[in-house]
Design goal:
14 helices; Aspartate Aminotransferase, domain 2; 17 strands; 373 residues; globular; 19% strand; alpha/beta; Aspartate Aminotransferase, domain 1
Length: 373
């Protein structure tokens, strides 16, 4: 069967268990992609499974104007885990929705329309988020998109200062560019963005859809820089594979957020999954494990006989810039060595495994990389 939009890979996945997934023929694959960082607690984490099945038995869904315990608990949990001074939460179903909401909230709160985003940045595929996504191949078939977007080179502080002015509603930045090739922000860059936006009263939005919930070694990548944005967006791994996004806001954004809504905002089942996932990441110290094992992965890849231009990343968000096409290499990893990974552009192999991986799994992946490059 051929799917519409998605091109299907020649491996049918039947089940998962922690850091492994299994094909319908029984083949065991080491999952170093985690479906774009969507299962940080590992496949089939019992805490998440129990939370979901318990909630299903009580209540599958009721829309968000009716308070339910699972949603209220998640609101409070997000507020506790968010950087200081961020305690308002909007729940949705994906990262692109979280960024759409952030874009709308910032424009409503400031009364301005200009958005500053970065080259190589990726913020989603719906029409507003897509307008802030730089790569032409994503944008071109759907233009004209929302206007008022100005792109600057990622990491260039001078360009950023020049772009942020009295017309600016918001600046959207990824603390580590994901689709753009696993590129961590240079030292001081996020702080410069914070100072420049405060000078003109613009909102600073950090897109942590891929970097959040422990991925880079702390709960939020922005914590590494000691910078607190006005809005932080999260998704992907928030509910360990169930669809959940969140837009976390400071009071001044939330007070003037305007009229926004979503039918499936904060459904009880996904809220239960998200709460269990966040608790597992905290209590099992998975962010700390990501920091340790991620550093080991980078070190071993740099020391290995791997034909690469550069190895870069933070925590368990690691990119290897290779000298041959990344997609061909990923095919060989999967079909010849039973390792699943991801591309980040045409020349970068991206590793985003569950945060439960250990050094023994890293050793397998490094050996496979040596074999295919």
């Amino acid at each position: 069967m051929t799917g519409f939009v998605f091109s299907e890979k020649p491996i049918q996945i039947a089940r998962g268990d922690d850091v492994y997934v299994y094909g319908d023929d029984g083949t065991e694959y080491l999952d170093f992609g985690a479906s774009y960082a969507c299962v940080p607690a590992g496949h089939g984490h019992p805490r998440v499974t129990d939370a979901v099945t318990t909630q299903l038995a009580d209540l599958t869904y009721v829309q968000a104007s009716y308070p339910v315990a699972a949603r209220t608990a998640l609101y409070e949990q997000f507020a506790d885990l968010a950087p200081d001074n961020i305690d308002k939460v909007w729940l949705c179903n994906s990262g692109t929705e979280a960024n759409e909401a952030a874009m709308k909230f910032a424009r409503s709160a400031t009364g301005r329309s200009k958005i500053v985003a970065t080259k190589r940045g990726f913020h989603g595929r719906t029409m507003g988020a897509l307008a802030m996504t730089w790569k032409k191949k994503y944008r071109a078939p759907f233009e004209p998109l929302a206007g008022g977007i100005e792109f600057v080179d990622y990491g260039d502080e001078e360009q950023l200062h020049e772009a942020i002015d009295e017309e600016t509603a918001a600046v959207f930045l990824e603390p580590v560019q994901g689709e753009g090739g696993i590129r961590p922000s240079p030292p001081g860059y996020l702080r410069t963005a914070r100072e420049a936006t405060e000078e003109v009263g613009a909102a600073l939005v950090f897109d942590e859809v891929q970097t959040g919930v422990g991925r880079t070694g702390l709960m939020w990548a922005t914590q590494r820089a000691g910078v607190v944005p006005d809005v932080l967006t999260a998704a992907k791994g928030v509910a360990n594979g169930l669809p959940m996004g969140a837009t976390l806001c400071r009071d001044w954004i939330a007070e003037d957020a305007g009229n926004h809504g979503s039918t499936f905002s904060g459904g009880p089942v996904v809220c239960a999954a998200a709460s269990a996932t966040l608790s597992a990441i905290e209590e099992e110290e998975l962010a700390a494990n990501a920091n340790r094992v991620g550093a080991y992965l980078v070190q071993e890849l740099r020391n290995a006989d791997v034909d690469a231009r550069e190895v870069r990343g933070l925590g368990l968000m690691v990119g290897v810039e290779v000298k041959r096409g990344a997609n061909r290499l990923l095919r060989d990893l999967a079909l010849d060595h039973d390792v699943l990974a991801l591309p980040a552009g045409r020349t970068v192999v991206r590793f985003l495994p569950p945060l439960t991986v250990g050094r023994e799994h890293v050793d397998e992946v490094v050996a496979a990389m040596e074999a295919v490059t």
